[in-house]
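Exercise 7.
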Amino acid sequence: MNLAHIHLLLNHFPTIGFGIGLLLFLAALFARSEELKRASFVILFLMAVIAIPAYMSGSAAESTLCPERTCPPEVSEHSIRAHEDAALLAFSFMEITGFVAWVGLWQLRRIPRLAAWNIASVLVLSLVTFGLMSNAATHGGEIRHPEIRASNPEAPVGEGEDGAIEGAEGIVRSIGAVVSGATGNSWLWPAMETLHFIGLCLLFTVVLLVNLRILGMAKKASFGAFYQLLPLGMMGFGLNLVTGMSFFIGAPGQYVNNPVYYWKIVLIVLGGVNILYFTLFDEAWAIGPGEDAPLRTKAAAATALLVWFGVLYCGHMLPFLGNSF
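Solution. The predicted structure, written as C-alpha cells, is:
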C-alpha cells in the first residue's frame, strides 16, 4: 500500500459520508426532528474533520502516480489539475459547513433548539458543498479513466526543486506560486507564519483552560464557564487550518515526503473527535463550581492535552525530522 491507496481510501469518506449527513439533515427537516438534526450535524462535522487528511494526501498520491513529475500515458495531467482545483474549493466549503454545524451543536447547550439562521446556513452550505464534492469526485475519476474523460487539452505544468509550483495553471498552483514567493511576494510567507502562531496561541489557550479545569484546576468555576471559550479555540484552529493549507499548497514537497507531517494530521483528526466529546456528552457539562470531574471525563481531558501537544510538537519538528525542509 502506498500514499495513493490511502488517498483513494480516505476520499470516499467525506464524499459518501457528507451525502449521508445531508440526506439525514433533509429528513430531519421534513420530520421536524431535533434529534435527527443533531445527528446530521455531527456527521457533517466529522466529515469536515476527515476531509483534512483526505485532501492533504492528494499531493502525495500525485507524486506516486507521476514520479519525477512525469505522468504515464494513461494518467491525465490536465485532469489532475482540474481535480486539484475542484477539490480545494469543495474542501473549503466542507470545512465552513462543518464549522457552522459545530456552532449549532455548541449552541444547544444554551438554547433548546437549533437557531433558524444556523439551520438555513447549514442547508445552503451543505447543498453547495455536495455539488462541489461531486464535481471534484468526477474530475478525480477522470484521472485514470479515459473512457469517461472529457476531451480537454493537456496543460503544461511544473514544479520547483523544493516542491513549489512554477508556471502552472489553475487555482491551486496560482495560490502556491504566490505563497511560496515565486511571484515576488517574499513577505507573504512570514506574514502567514505570524498568523499561524496567533491561531496556535488562541487554540492552545482554550485547550489548556478547558482541559486543566476538568483535571482539577480552577475548581471555583464551573465547566460551563470555560465551555463558552470553545468557539475561540475553533477560531484559532480555523486560522491555523487556512495558513497551514497555504504552506502546504505553496511547497507541498516539504510535507508529502515527511512522515512527521502525517502524524500531525492524524493527531489533528483525533483532536477534532475529542472536541465532539466535550460538545455532545453531559459528563463535563454537569461539573459545577467546586466539583470534581468523573474519571472518564478526566481521561478525555488528558487525551486532549496529549493530542494537541503532539500536534504542536510535530508541527515544530517538521524542519528537523524527516529531512524534507
